[in-house]
Amino acid sequence: MEIAGVEVSELEFEKIGSWPKLFRILVIVGVCIAMFFLGYMLYLGDKVDELRNAIIKMENLSQSFVATQHQVANLDAYKKEVKVVENELDKLTEQLPQTSEESGLLRDISQQAVSSGLQFISIKPGHSENKGFYQESPIELTLSGNYSGFGDFASNIANMPRIVTLHEFTISKNDTKGGGLLKMVVNAKTYWITSKELHE
Rounded to whole angstroms, how far apart are CA atoms 197 and 96? Predict the structure, then answer.
């Protein structure tokens, strides 16, 4: 191969000093590039990685600082929100009766059914489940009446001062009573306080 009128195959490395100027410059540039590459690999490579990691760490710290600064700036607002949540929790906790009030709560549920024009067919208490500071007790209620009475009953239960929730109801014809009455089976869940500290 011929470059600039010189046959490359005729060049001898031992006589590099007598090579044409262009080839000597190419060799020097090649050696410099090789030395730079080796220097980068042996020395600068680790430093560049350290610099990259330091930049990433600085960015993370900067983001953390901004987030912390935002929290500090809104600390008073957060405290007010916590206070509101604590007050709401206190109000809800006051609606949780102690287990000693169970008979009274069942009587209240019965009164709500009667005032809604419904009749009880059966009441089947289920197994209580401990939820931490409160206990959940399911009761299967079977009632006889009409759609309007069922709606009134659900509304009255929701407005009770104690927390009672209704779940999984089914409505069907009441074959035993007749007269166009319906039968509703519904699971009522009552909740009882188990932590005296919260109740007090």
Answer: 13
For 137, the token pair is 């007790």
Query: Coil, helix or strand for 33?
Result: helix
CA 64 to each of CA 68, 76, 77: distance values in angstroms, whole numbers, following the listed order: 6, 20, 20
In whole angstroms, give the CA distance from residue 59 to residue 118.
Answer: 67
User: pTM score, two decimals?
Assistant: 0.48
Contact between 167 and 158 under an 8 Å Cβ cutoff? The reply is no
d(CA 119, CA 103): 19
Residue 162 · residue 108 · CB < 8 Å: yes
Q: Going from the N-terminus, what domains does the chain have, and what CATH number goes with each?
A: 1-73 (no CATH), 99-199 (3.30.70.60)
DSSP result, 63-106: HHHHHHHHHHHTHHHHHHHHHHHHHHHHHHHHTS--GGGHHHHH
Q: What tokens were used for 123?
A: 């009441």
Q: Hey, what long-range contacts does 121-130 have (CB within 8 A, 24 or more apart)?
A: 121/176, 121/183, 126/187, 128/192, 130/194
Q: What is the pLDDT of residues 77-101, one digit of tens each?
A: 888 888 888 888 777 666 665 655 6
As a 3-state breakdown, the chain gives helix, strand, coil percent values, each rounded to 5, of 60, 25, 20
Taking Cα atoms as reference points, which of 139, 150, 140 lies closest to residue 113? 150
